[in-house]
Amino acid sequence: MRNRLLLIVALFISVTLKGQVWPYQNPSLSFEERAKDLISRLTIEEKAALMCDQSDAIPRLGIRKFNWWSEALHGYANNDSVTVFPEPIGMAASFNDALLYDIYNAVSDEGRAKYHQHLRRGNENKRFLSLSVWTPNVNIFRDPRWGRGQETYGEDPYLTSRMGVQVVKGLQGPEDAKYRKLLACAKHYAVHSGPEWSRHELNLNNVNPRLFNETYLPAFKALVQEANVRQVMCAYQRLDDEPCCGSTRLLQRILRDEWGFKHIVVSDCGAITDFYTTHKVSSTPVHAASQGVLSGTDVECVWENYPYKTLPEAVERGLMKEEEINKSLMRVLIGRFEVGDFDDDALVPWAQIPASVLNCDKHKQLAYQMAQQSMTLLQNNNNILPLSKSMKKIAVIGPNAADEEMLWGNYNGTPIHTISILNGIKSKISENKIFYDKGCDLVEDKVTESYFSQLSFDGKRGFTATYWNNPAREGNAVISQQIITPIKKTTAGQHEFASGVKLEGFSALFQAEFTPKVSEELVFKGGATGYFELLVNGQQLQMYNNWRTLPGRIPYQFEAGKKYHIELRYAQLNNWQANIEFDFGKEVDVDYTELVRKLKGIETVVFVGGLSGKLEGEEMPVSYPGFKGGDRTDIELPAVQRNCLKALRAAGKKVIYVNCSGAAIALQPETQSCDAILQAWYPGEMGGLAVADVLFGDYNPGGKLPVCFYKNSDKLGDFEDYSMNDRTYRYTTDYLFPFGFGLSYTSFQIGKAGISQSSIKANEKVTLTIPVKNTGKRAGTEIVQVYVRKVNDVDGPLKTLRGFQRVELAPGESQSVSIELTPSSFEFYDWSLRQMAVTPGQYEVYYGNSSASEALQMTMVTIQ
C-alpha cells in the first residue's frame, strides 16, 4: 500500500512539473519580461554559454541549441537548392532599392523555409542554418583592391544607406509584426574595408573626425535608426588603439547613447581572441572576454575555444559583475524570443513558409530581373551592340564564358540550375553559329596538359578514393572507388561523394602513384572546401581548412624513373558544403597564334573575362600573381587576358568584352582593344541569360557604376591608409569611368530643373522637379542623380550623392522626376561643433545622369 501511494505521488509530481509554464515560456508576456525571468533561472556558466555564437542546449530549461551565424549576402548562403541573386555590388548598380526589398523578402522566405525544413527532418540547428543572418555588409568600398568590396553597395554613403535599409527590412519582416522573420546584421562596424591580410593587426589612428562621420558611419546609423536592425557586427581591426569589439566609444557612446541602438552586438569571428593574440591589448582569454562584454559585445563568434566561456572566472576575479553579463544576455535572449525560438511553430507565421519557395520560379524571376538591371554598359563604339541574331558566326572566348560558379560570387548558396554566359548566348542564336574556346586562364599565362591518365594505384588507373563516415578517417571505410578523370566532387545539391558516404562529417583519402618518363617540373592544381592536404612521398606540400574552394597551383620537380606516391587527405568540417577539385600535369605557354587560327572567318568575338570569387574574397589562403590573401596588389586586368584581347584586336576582330568582377578594373587599355565593354559583375544564377539579353538587344542596359573605375593603379596609395585622398568620386576626378556612369541603347535629355524653394531654413526640405525625355528610338531606363556640395567647403567632398530615381521611358516620352532633399541632404561635418550639422550658407545642387561634371547641371540653395 505504501509503495502504491509513493508511486501515485511521484506520478502527480511528474505531471505537475511537465505541465509547468514558467513566465519565460508564456508567449503572452513581452519578450523583455520573458528574457528577465529566464535569466533569473540560469547559472552563470549557462549564461556565458548562451553568449557564444554556437549556443548549446540547456535541457533542464527546455532551451534548444541555437546558432547565431548564418549568411544571406545575396541568397541564403552555404545551402543548396536556394536562389542565388547577383552579388551586392552588382545589385547596387541597379540603383533600385525597391527591388532590393523584394529580393531580401524572398531571401528571408527561403531562410525560414530551409531552417524549419532542416529541423523537421530531426536535425539540430547548426551554423549557416539559423534565423540570425550576418547581412548586409555596409562598409564603404574605399579602395578597389579590397577583395570583399563585392559584398558592399559601393563607395557612396548615401547609396549604401538606401540599399542597406531595404535589405534589413526585407530580411526582418514588418516592424509591426510580433516576430521577426530573421535577425539581420549591419557589418563590419566601423571603418573597415581591408586589407584582408592585416585586418587582425591593423590599427587605424589617422581617420579624421570628418571622414569618420561623413563617410564611414552614415550607413550604420541609417540601418540602426531607419531599419531598426537587430544586430551590429564589430570589426576585427583597432580604431585609435582600441579593437572595434572592445571600444566603448563605438559600442556605447555612439551606437547606444547617440543612435539609440537597443539590440545585439556580435563579434566578427575570432575578434575577441585577437585581443590577446594579435592586438595584444589583453593578456589572457579571461581578460579579453571581460573587455568584450564590458565594452558592449554581446555575442562572441570564434572557431573554437570561446573566451566568453571564461566569463564566470572573470566574475570570480572581480574583473566584472554578473549583472553586466545579465545586461548583455538580456539583449541576446530578446533576439531569440523575437524570432520565436522559444515558442511553438504554430504561433510563428514565418514558420509556416513552405519549402516550395526554395529557388521557386518567382524567386528566379527576381534574380533574373535584378541581373538585367545590374548590367552596366561602359563602352559601345559605333553602336556595335546590340548584336544581330542573324549573324553567320560568332566566337565566345574567355575564362569566364562557361564558368557557372563564377556567376555566384562569394558568400553564396547553390541554386538548382545556373545559366552560364555561354549558355545564355546559345539561347539567342543557334549553337552551330557559335565557336567556343576558353582562350586563356583568368591569371596564369599557361595552360595545363593533364597527366591524370598516367596515374595509377594497385595496378588500377587513376586515383583510389577511400571514404569514411567520420572526419578523422578512423575505423572501417564505407567504400573505395577508382577515379580516372580529374577530381571534381561536391555535396551541393545533396550529391554524395560516393554511394553510402554521408553529406556531412565524412573524410576521404585519395591515393595514386606516378613514375615519370622524363625529368621535368609539373604542377598540382586543386583545392577544397573543408580540410585539404596534399602530400608527395610523405612530404606535405599544402594544407588548409577553408570555407570555400580555392584552387591553387603547386609546382613540383619530378625525376625520371622515380616512383612518387601522391596523397590527398580530405575532411568535411564546420557545416560547409563539401567540395574538392584536383588535376595534375604540365604547363605550356598560351599560344594565341593557334587561337587566332581557330577564329579564321569569324569577325565578331565576345570575350568573357575579368576576375572570380576564387581570386578575390575574404582572407584567402591561396594567392596568385597580382593578388594577396583575397585582395589585389594592383587593379589592372591580369596580363594573360589583356594579351589575349590584344591578339584578337591585332587579328582584326571586332571584340565585345564582358567583364565579370566584384570590383573596379583599370580598363584603359581595353578601351583601345575592345569595341564594347559590358560590366556584368557576378550576376547570379540567371546572369548568363541577362548578359545575353543585353548583347543581343532583348534588354536595354540601364545600370550605373556604384564605384569609380580608375585609369590604373598609380594613384591608389597605401592600401592601409584610410584617408580618402584620390579615392572615390567624392575626392577625385581622375577616373576612367565615373561613379553613376552607364550607357544605354537609347538617348536621354535632362532638362532644367525646377526647385520648390531656393532659400530655406535648416529644418526645411527642397523638392527638385527634373524633366527627362527619351530622345532615342527604343524604350529605356535612366537613373537621375542629385548631388550636393557646400560652397567654400575647403576640405569637404567635391560632391555627395543625396538622391536618385529610376525613370522608364518609351521612345519620345517625357516625364518630370521629383526628388526630395530633406534637411539631412545638407548635413556635413562641422569642425566648430565637432559633429554633423546643417549650417547656414550656400549649397550647390547638381543633377544629371552620372557624377561627372560634364553630365551635371547645377542650381543653388541657400540655408538661412
Please describe what this structure looks like.
GO terms for molecular function: alpha-L-arabinofuranosidase activity; beta-glucosidase activity; xylan 1,4-beta-xylosidase activity. InterPro entries: BXL, Fn3-like, GH, Glyco_hydro_3_C, Glyco_hydro_3_C_sf, Glyco_hydro_3_N, Glyco_hydro_3_N_sf, Ig-like_fold. One of its GO terms (biological process) is arabinan catabolic process. Keywords: Hydrolase, Signal. The protein has 864 residues and is an alpha+beta fold. It has 5 domains: 1-30, no CATH class; 31-355, TIM Barrel (Alpha-Beta Barrel), CATH 3.20.20; 362-445 and 591-695, Glycoside hydrolase family 3 C-terminal domain (Rossmann fold, 3-Layer(aba) Sandwich), CATH 3.40.50.1700; 448-588, Jelly Rolls (Sandwich), CATH 2.60.120; 748-863, Immunoglobulins (Immunoglobulin-like). It is built from 19 helices and 39 strands. The strands form 10 sheets. Strands 12, 15, 16, 17, 18, 19, 20, 21, 22 and 23 form a 10-stranded antiparallel sheet that branches. It has a 6-stranded mixed sheet with strand order 9-28-27-24-10-11. The protein has a 5-stranded mixed sheet with strand order 31-39-38-33-34. The protein is globular.
